[in-house]
Each structure stands twice: as structure tokens, then as C-alpha cells.
Write a structure and sequence with these properties.
The complex is a heterodimer of chains A (about 110) and B (about 120).
Chain A lengths: L3 E4 L2 E4 L5 E7 L7 E6 L6 E5 L3 E2 L7 E6 L2 E6 L9 E6 L6 E2 L3 E5 L1
Parallel strand pairs in A: 2-11
Antiparallel strand pairs in A: 1-3, 3-8, 4-5, 4-9, 5-6, 7-8, 9-10, 9-11
Chain B lengths: L2 E5 L2 E3 L5 E8 L8 E6 L5 E7 L6 E3 L7 E6 L4 E6 L8 E7 L10 E2 L3 E5 L2
Parallel strand pairs in B: 2-11
Antiparallel strand pairs in B: 1-3, 3-8, 4-5, 4-9, 5-6, 7-8, 9-10, 9-11
The chains are: A mainly beta (about 110), B mainly beta (about 120).
Chain lengths: ~110, ~120
């Protein structure tokens, strides 16, 4: 099973600042990584797939990069609605697996 | 509008059974892979089961293999997850998720979830 490890667990950021979230795979997954946003009491929402392609309707301030084992989600200027939990997921091999999440909180 | 709505969750004793349903609207089940993903309290998301668009290929997490069965009724636009021999560790919110393509890859659209509690 491919293990996805996210860091940091919590990121404290002021509104308007940028944030960089990291995700590392235990083995190469090429570019088969997706990122999701989840708010309390809500289902996850797809943000990024193919490591760098924004899903429909996702603001341009969200960007993804990486390949192989190291991936990054960057939020260029945090808005109030961006404070949430973020998960990475690999879909290179079954079982599809998620990282443990990074909570982006208001500083 | 593309939408998913789960139902069927509830409180069940260990060893019991439940059948979760996911009604799809705004798209055709045979055009997309479909998934069940669960989230236990304080735990990371876990992909439980999935079915390709053709229905010919199904996947199960090792922890549920032999106990859970994914199926669908295309005439009702509904996907199911039959859960038997339930364990305390199956307690979670269960989400159905529509994939982006015919193969199992990504949760492109999620339902609101249905809560399953396994407890005596």
C-alpha cells in the first residue's frame, strides 16, 4: 500500500498570506495525485488532479505541483473561505490512499 | 444538476448488516466509475470500495473484503454498498463519490455522506 504523508499537520496563516502544503508518497506515483478541501461537517471537494490541473470552478489562487514522490499544494493569497482541512490522494495504484491532512487555520 | 445523495446509515450492533444507497442525478452511472469512501472519527479518509463505469471491475479495501459488496441498479440510478459482519471499526461517515472518468481514480463529486455507527 502506498502511504501518503502530509506536512505540516497544522499551518497557521494570516488572511492574504500564502500557504504551501506538502505531500510525500512512499513510492513513485508519477503525477497521479489529487488534492481535496474539506470544511467541518462537509464532504471533501476536489481541488486539483493530475498533480497540477485545477478542477472545474476552483479559483486560480490554488495551484499544485510535483511528480514522483513529492507534491505541493500552494494557496497564493488565503481568503476566509480557504481555512479548512486539505488532503492529498494518490490514484496510481489500488488501494487508493489519502494523506493524513493539513489543517490550515487562521493565525 | 449533478448530485449524489446517500442514505441507509444508522446504528447497528457488531455482526449486523446495513445497505447503503447512493442515488445519482444529472448523469448516467454507466459513464463514470463510482466510489465509496469513509471517514472514521479523527481518522484519515479511506477508500472502501469502487466500481468501474462498465461495472465489470470492482475494488475493495482489504479491511472490508469478503464483508462488503458494491453493486448498482442502473434503472434506478442507484449505487449500493451492502455491509455485513459489521465491526466497531467500521463506524464512520460513508460517502459515495463520482469519478472523473470510466476508471477508478478520483472523487470528483461527493455526496453529503451517511453515518454508520457500529456499537452494542
Amino acid at each position: 500500500e502506498i502511504v501518503m504523508t502530509q506536512s505540516p499537520a497544522t499551518l497557521s496563516v494570516s488572511p492574504g498570506e500564502g500557504a504551501t502544503l506538502s505531500c510525500r508518497a512512499s513510492q513513485s506515483v508519477s503525477s497521479t495525485v489529487a488534492w481535496y478541501q474539506q470544511k467541518p461537517g462537509q464532504a471533501p471537494r476536489l481541488l486539483i488532479y493530475g498533480a497540477s490541473t485545477r478542477a472545474t470552478g476552483v479559483p486560480a489562487r490554488f495551484s499544485g505541483s510535483g511528480s514522483g514522490t513529492d507534491f505541493t499544494l500552494t494557496i497564493s493569497s488565503l481568503q476566509s473561505e480557504d481555512f479548512a482541512l486539505y488532503y492529498c490522494q494518490q490514484y496510481n495504484d489500488w488501494p487508493l490512499t489519502f494523506g493524513g491532512g493539513t489543517k490550515v487555520e487562521i493565525k | 444538476e449533478v448530485e449524489l445523495k446517500e442514505s441507509g446509515g444508522g446504528l447497528v450492533q457488531p455482526g449486523g448488516s446495513l445497505r447503503l444507497s447512493c442515488v445519482a442525478s444529472g448523469f448516467t452511472l454507466t459513464n463514470y466509475a463510482m466510489n465509496w469512501v469513509r471517514q472514521a472519527p479523527g481518522e484519515r479518509l479511506q477508500w472502501v470500495s469502487a466500481m468501474s463505469a462498465s461495472g465489470l471491475t470492482t475494488y475493495y479495501a482489504d479491511s472490508v473484503k469478503g464483508r462488503f459488496t458494491i453493486s448498482r441498479d442502473t434503472s434506478k440510478s442507484t449505487m449500493y454498498l451492502q455491509m455485513t459482519s459489521l465491526r466497531v471499526e467500521d463506524t464512520a461517515v460513508y460517502y459515495c463519490a463520482k469519478d472523473m472518468d470510466i476508471v477508478v481514480q478520483i472523487g470528483a463529486l461527493w455526496g453529503q455522506g451517511t453515518r454508520v455507527i457500529v456499537s452494542s
